Prior knowledge:
Blueprint: H1 3-10, H2 12-17, H3 44-95, H4 100-137, E1 161-162, H5 166-181, H6 184-190, E2 200-208, E3 211-222, H7 226-237, E4 250-260, E5 263-272, E6 275-287, E7 292-298, E8 301-302, E9 312-324, E10 331-344, H8 353-382
Parallel strand pairs: 1-8, 6-9
Antiparallel strand pairs: 2-3, 3-10, 4-5, 5-6, 6-7, 7-9, 9-10
Helix pairs in contact: 7-8
Organism: Thraustotheca clavata
Region (Disordered): 35-63
Amino acid sequence: MNDDEMVDALGFDDLLTSLDFDLSMGNIGNSYLVPTEVTTPSSPEEKRSVLPATRRTQRHRKRHQDELAFLKSKVKELTEHLQILQHVKELEADSEPCCEWKKLAQNEKKREQEVMSENRRLKDAIEEQVKFAEYLVTILEKKPRLGLLSPGLADQWQMLKLVAEPTARAAAFHAIADREYAKVESVMIEGNLIDRQEESHSYIPKLINGVLEVQTAVFILYPVHYNLLAEASWRVLRGSIELDPMTGIHASYQLLHEIDPNTVYISSMWHYSGGGYQARMIVKRYIEENRQIIISRSIHEDELHPLVEGCAIANECSYLSFDKDPATGLARARYFQRMKPTYFTQEIHDRSHLSLCEFLMELCEQSSMTFEYTIKCHLYLLLSKPIPPKKRPIKS
């Protein structure tokens, strides 16, 4: 067999046409560029054998380029989509309001830690006093210094006592009110006043540690700015406006001392068939960015203004907050009060704590109605509107 017959037998022409060569100049190094003689196919058979291979190479190259262009466009499209999603997520994070309950939970956690820390401090102080007392027993021949066994002047406020010493007395006014101010969120949760949408008034007796406690919870809405409602309430609670009672119970409200523009010390007396019910109240206003708070806390003893003999002494605290209702835009007022029967400055045999408890149940509702109506009247005066008629509140 000669050489031509051998080539035909192997199908060499078919083998060549099945191979793809990428002979682009970019894939050939400059070091291999040497002058070569270009041979042009002369016969029709040679042209037919070369052209199919060239067309396949071009088709392959074009397909590769199309795929590359498609992938590049997809990368660009997905990158732009990712950037849009990231931008939307940032906007949502910036615009999403912080949950009110989350804030309340954080505040409660912080206050719990503070209370636990204070309890540990008091426990350590008691243990130290016990050790000191045991030490005194071993040295009976020495006279004990009783001053070490009782709180100093600066700590009397913790027992709701106002001393005569000016510096300690001035600090006590703020310390007593500030301690209750830290509890605002807690008591509003306890009074079920956080998510209220409709006006309500409730007066609920509870037995706490064997002692009756009457809890008052009030939620009201007014079509005014909340700062105006807070100002009217502050003028009434500080004793600047005479109370307009809605019932037959007689009450007196007197300003004893103005500590500063937002803190006052007042005296009140409520008279009933069994006698009188007196209170010495520290009233302080807290002005926040989007809210106002008014705290009223009674004290048990005052060295400068002794309490009236023969009258029951109030043990009460109230929390009043004002802000804007986000749903309606109205001024929103939330009020929570604790009131307990306490003690008399001297024992009177014909007066019992039972009658006092009965009076407190009535007093909580009547005093709440009296203050609410007086505040509303003063608010209407500030707005130059006619005084609203008296009406009983809605109970829940």
